Amino acid sequence: MAIIYPDIEIIKSGRLKPEPGELFLLQFLSDNFDESYEIFFQPFLNGDRPDIILMRKGYGVMIIEVKDWNFKNYYLDEKRKWRLNQNNAFIKSPIDQVLQYKDNLYNLHIENLLEKKIKNFKYWSLVTCAVYFHNASSSEISDLLIEPYKENKKYCDFLKWNVDLLGRNNINVEYLSSIFSKRYIISKIPSKLFDSSLYDSFKRYFKPTFHSKEEGIEIRFTEQQKRLAQSNFGLEQRVKGVVGSGKTTVMAARAVNAHKRHQERVLILCFNMTLKNYIHDKISRVREDFTWDNFYINNYHNFLSAEMNNCGIEFKLPPNFENFNQQEKSDFFEFNYFSNVELFKDHQANLSKYKTILIDEIQDYHRPWMDLIKENFLSKDGEYVLWGDEKQNIYDNELEEKDLKTNVKGKPSTLKDSFRSVKKIKDLAIKFQKQNFTSKYEIDNFNELPQLLLDYDNPSTINYIYFEDANSIDTAKLHELIKDYSIKLNEHPNDITVLGFRVSVLREFECYYRYKSNEKTNTMFETQEVWYKLFLQTFKSLEIIKSGLSLIETNDNDDEKKNKISVIMALRDLVRETNDQSFKERLSYYLEKYKISTSKFEEWYTSNDLSDLLNSDKRYSLRKLEQKYPQYRQLTKSLKLVRDNKKHHFWYDRGTLKLSTIHSFKGWEANTLFLILEEQFSEGSDFLTSFEELIYTAITRSKTNLIVLNYGNTKHHESMVDLFDKYNKGIS
Description:
Elements: E1 3-5, H1 8-13, H2 20-32, E2 37-41, E3 52-56, E4 60-67, E5 74-76, E6 82-84, H3 94-109, H4 113-119, E7 127-133, H5 138-145, H6 153-162, E8 164-167, H7 173-182, H8 196-206, E9 210-211, H9 223-228, E10 236-241, H10 247-262, E11 266-270, H11 275-284, E12 290-291, E13 295-299, H12 300-311, H13 326-338, E14 354-359, H14 367-377, E15 378-388, E16 399-400, E17 403-404, E18 413-415, H15 423-436, E19 462-467, H16 475-489, E20 496-500, H17 503-517, E21 521-523, H18 528-538, H19 543-549, H20 558-578, H21 581-593, H22 598-605, H23 608-614, H24 622-628, H25 631-648, E22 657-661, H26 662-665, E23 670-678, H27 691-699, E24 702-711, H28 717-724
Helix pairs in contact: 3-25, 10-11, 16-17, 18-20, 18-25, 20-21
């Protein structure tokens, strides 16, 4: 018998009863396939709730969406959109729904799976999809979904390669076995790609683990923190706290206490997707027994997108959407979806209601977001608690009397004691507040508290270094500077973080650091090699790219050629920027290894066509670049998927140097922090938000050592000198 999670008797007696079609298919799979088949019923994939997932170790995964629909109630319009006969209302296609679950496994849920797919597209076939229509036969499915469009080769090929459509008459061993064979769930030879490591990653995600009390640690709370860590029936509350006051630690304890109180799942939302793992870490330190699926931690936009998919709500785009600029696209989604309080009006029966909702980073939330969450997902008399710090209001959300505007009435509870940083950092934070926030916010006084005298003599290095007339960042000198400081401070790479504004600058430095030190890194963005692989993939139809791939004269497939050229291009960039002998030797090694002519590669790499396509001289703005080469829009989308995936799987203690934009690192902390300031760019950077709040957020991530490196930002140089005059020893 196949193994069912949870046990089928538990499924039958559960609070949420399975639909007849789900139960029928589960029972059939259980009775007719052996124990090598693992069946997961409605696994909770951090918001995604696919009906059934089938997995076979060594072979692959199949996601099955089950619909008990009567086809008489539906029709497809001229654009193949599903509609209700009753009122012509749109509903999301179950095909799109199951494919979205697959996309999310790659893009969000399974660590490293997206990068594996980018390097080798064969990984995409490890997860397959099916839709089972319990109340329809295969001929009825064909009449509705296939026969009317059989002349549309593109559509028929799409179905052939992406999804299997199953009717009630198809649920027999012979037919299902043929489908499993076609999708390599059944095969004479196990998959080399779906190895034990990848199988374990899937299994860990499909079947949440148990956290024992012994895994936690004893946390010493202040009396005020103890009170705020207690869950209360029906309480609406806002908690504000200064930087390093333990907001997230207290919130994590309250989440566990809430689950203990009502024995149901707790919803925890944030804004920054990387903060999910930080919250997870904080919950893991609580000394209590629980299973991890009792805590749903997500950022707002992914949470809403997942709920829309679960409810079958589509993002409906206007015909001219591709012609919108980035701001217009953002405004469209914001108005029609993310700030639309009525979005789930007709889907209340499909929504999960939570007895406890905790929202972190509330300073980053628009007011309609709060109303949408509260009105649609909070159960009657549920607990609703908002946590935040208005001085980290980097998106410049609306204030009221120097405080945040929220949908919780009354004065907030305030955590005034800061425990994160040494006194020098706290002094600097207060000085920054007085320098920049006096007219906007209430100034904190956490550096005047008696307990801070305890760390008065703790060793700490704070420095501001100014590189005048710096048109670019010298990665070699930056590496040497960080290396020298790490030796001087006796810091392990795990305790060092480099923050900046532009991903491109951080990515180039990460590439230099990795090759020069032979050390791995921990980032929230793509490597230079992955950037080039996506670039080559995006522009593969252009002659200049074809000629580059043709430099490899071996029998490699296109994916392998792109991987090799990507490595060569990254190394050649390093040689161009640094003229370092070790990089020259490594480049020569790879050119010889991949059997690429050095002279032919140089001719291609330095060609005007490639330079123009890469915008090497930065002559085009991003908008003009997209106008000249529209494919850059697709490259931007691909990069966003990679970066989101990296953020979803960013964990702190991996023993390596961390690199991140300030936005992505918000909420985290670092023992030693290097902050790179640049000239204020109008695009391609995070300067488009509130600059002072962003800088304040960055410097308050530091626990002990802070080194600010200003590369040519003359506008803010004087204020930085004034801020650091007490400790400044390194202006150059």
